[in-house]
Design a protein that fits this description.
The protein is an alpha/beta fold and about 600 residues long. Helices cover about 35% and strands about 20% of the residues. It contains 21 helices and 25 strands. Helix 1 (about 5-15) runs antiparallel to helix 2 and helix 6 packs across helix 7.
Length: about 600
């Protein structure tokens, strides 16, 4: 029979009064813990003793049953006594007792809890990290013991801490769902792996198995971290866990990631969260969200401030915009741009050389498969003058090969990479873009221009592109060509809406067709499903269009001052004019760039096209 059980039996059976039993109880406790008693440690009773006299703040005198300078004061009470009142009494003695850091109250009925590092459980797939976690827990206990006046083991050998297990937290080796240990609280920092990094980090087989294992409970397009939120919430629902605190990237606030939070908020609630905090992981700066949920009577707190409610997008307030749904009148208007899936892009000068080549053997010119191309950086910075080879979504390999120069370029630059692609359709149709967006192309066909905005950008802006320009997948294309729609996109109302309903990449907001465009409540009579001609005489549309047109003109004049640039027709018809920098201006700019680069204040810049 262990010493602890003997101690528990002795004091559970006693009927002694507080004053008769207090000192013997404490001495027995010292023996149980291997600590010196007050008389053994301090025979003079100068810094460690029983019945230390003290004056209360109210003026009367009293004593603490046990006192150790710089460590604790201890107050005993008999069975069924009010320990809160005893604690208040110790607080009143604190000044006279030199403000001990630990105030302890206990009675003779409650038993000493067996709490130690073994109560910390954990799951860690990396053996080194698992062992590091065990050592960290032991260090924490040692620090607590020393800080609170307890002696350490005479032989400081750490016992095995098998409660921290080295295994996968979301999938067993046999592809089944693992059981998490029962715990009162769950805390952790799960791995930050998005959809693309999951495949490179885990491998195709494990990713597909993981998707199948959590199908219907976690969206396959969600980040890996959401599996931890799902499992932790299942423990809360089953009663195995009271509260949970997890860290995720701030992208958990939107898109497919947010669906796990939607359920938590609707069924339980988030009681504390930090929505967007900086963090450095493996040397890279990221933005994270800290989320706590489970059973509590505490009032919600968001970003350190009281909140009436915390919504699934980690905003506060009764108006929950995460419940906004896509509107039918907004559908089929905004699209993600084309995804190349290879080095189909070429410098403008090479494209112009191909445009001027003779007719191909099929009697067709290269202009049929060459288009100017722009991505997000072309919109937020200067155009890099890139073009793209585009064989469409129906052209066969044999047909494409008759556009000789562009096809040979694709065969040399694209085929080696695409021939090893995991997806059969990408591998077999290597000469085509992986996602050519035929629906978008069909919408652009009758238009002279259309609106684009970067998917991810620090500042939300919209610009016009000529319909012959192919938008990259990092652009969202809006297939409207009227100034009123352009103005509504630039409105403060839409900007705030996009910020609230969109997600973000680090500190840069993300714009998506489904969450930020299709949910936006356009004014009645100005919705995207109505042709522009139908509201051309609407005074609202006219005012918005005039302001939008002026904004676009001012911006273009500021970016491309007429006296500093020249607009030059392309080498063949059917394409928008090129904007070239005049020679004298180019010399000035080049001088400034050279000076700034010499001072280390500027990196590489896009090449400039110069004209007289």
């Amino acid at each position: 029979m262990t010493q602890q059980i003997l101690w528990q039996r002795k004091w559970k059976a006693t009927n002694l009064k507080e004053r008769s039993a207090a000192q013997e109880h404490f001495i027995d406790l010292c023996r149980l813990l291997g600590e010196q008693t007050p008389a053994e440690a301090d025979p003079d009773g100068a810094w460690y003793c029983f019945e230390r006299g003290a004056s209360k703040l109210t003026g009367s005198d009293g004593w603490a049953d046990v006192w150790k300078r710089g460590s604790f004061s201890w107050e005993y009470k008999g069975k069924h006594k009010d320990l809160k009142a005893a604690y208040v009494q110790l607080q009143r003695y604190s000044v006279a007792l030199e403000n001990p850091p630990l105030l302890v109250v206990c009675d003779l009925e409650r038993q000493f809890p067996a709490i130690g590092p073994e109560c910390v459980k954990g799951l860690e797939i990396n053996p080194y990290a698992a062992e590091l976690a065990r050592v960290t827990v032991w260090i924490g206990e040692i620090q607590w013991m020393r800080r609170n006046g307890f002696e350490l083991e005479r032989q400081p050998i750490l016992r095995p801490l098998d409660t921290i297990e080295c295994r996968d937290a979301v999938m067993n080796p046999d592809s089944t769902e693992p059981e998490w240990p029962e715990a009162e609280f769950i805390v952790g920092i799960p791995p930050f792996l998005g959809g693309k990094l999951m495949r490179s980090g885990l491998g195709d087989h494990d990713v597909e198995t993981l998707f199948a294992l959590y199908r219907g409970r976690v969206p396959p397009e969600a980040d890996l971290v959401t599996d931890w939120f799902k499992n932790a919430y299942a423990h809360v629902k089953s009663g195995q866990t009271k509260r949970v605190g997890l860290v995720a990237t701030n992208s958990i606030r939107g898109g497919a990631n947010r669906r796990v939070l939607d359920r938590i908020v609707s069924e339980s609630g988030i009681f504390e969260a930090w929505s967007d905090e900086p963090r450095v992981i493996d040397g890279a700066s990221v933005r994270v969200s800290l989320i706590c949920f489970g059973a509590t009577d505490d009032a919600p707190r968001l970003d350190g401030r009281p909140a009436s409610r915390i919504n699934a997008d980690l905003t506060a307030g009764a108006v929950d915009l995460t419940t906004a749904k896509g509107l039918d009148e907004n559908r089929g208007v905004s699209f993600m741009g084309d995804t190349k899936g290879g080095a189909f892009d070429v410098p403008g000068e090479l494209a112009r050389t191909w445009l001027q080549l003779p007719t191909n053997p099929n009697g067709r010119i290269n202009a049929e498969v060459l288009r100017p191309w722009q991505n997000g950086q072309d919109i937020t910075r200067r155009s890099a003058d890139k073009w793209v080879i585009d064989f469409g979504w129906e052209m066969s390999e044999q047909e494409a090969s008759l556009f000789e120069a562009p096809f040979e370029h694709v065969k040399a630059r694209v085929f080696p990479e695409r021939s090893e692609n995991r997806r059969e359709s990408y591998r077999m149709r290597w000469w085509r873009h992986v996602e050519p967006r035929p629906a978008l192309m069909g919408k652009l066909a009758p238009l002279a221009r259309y609106i684009v905005t970067p998917r991810v950008a620090k500042h939300r802006l919209f610009v016009w592109l000529d319909s012959v320009v192919l938008p990259d997948c990092q652009l969202i294309a809006i297939t409207k060509d009227d100034d009123a729609t352009f103005g509504i996109r630039h409105s403060r109302f839409h900007e705030l809406w996009a910020l609230r309903l969109g997600t973000s990449l680090e500190d840069r907001p993300r714009y998506t067709p489904s969450t930020t465009f299709e949910t936006f409540p356009f004014s009645k009579g100005l919705t995207p499903d109505i042709p522009a001609a139908a509201y051309a005489d609407d005074p609202r549309a006219q005012k918005i269009a005039a302001a939008a047109k002026q904004l676009d003109e001012l911006r273009n004049n500021w970016l491309n001052p007429p006296d500093l640039v020249a607009r030059v027709p392309e080498v063949v018809e059917g394409y928008p004019d090129r904007i070239l920098v005049r020679a004298i201006y180019a010399i000035i700019v080049l001088f400034i760039v050279i000076v700034l680069q010499a001072l280390g204040l500027l990196g590489a810049v896009p090449a400039m096209r110069i004209t007289r």
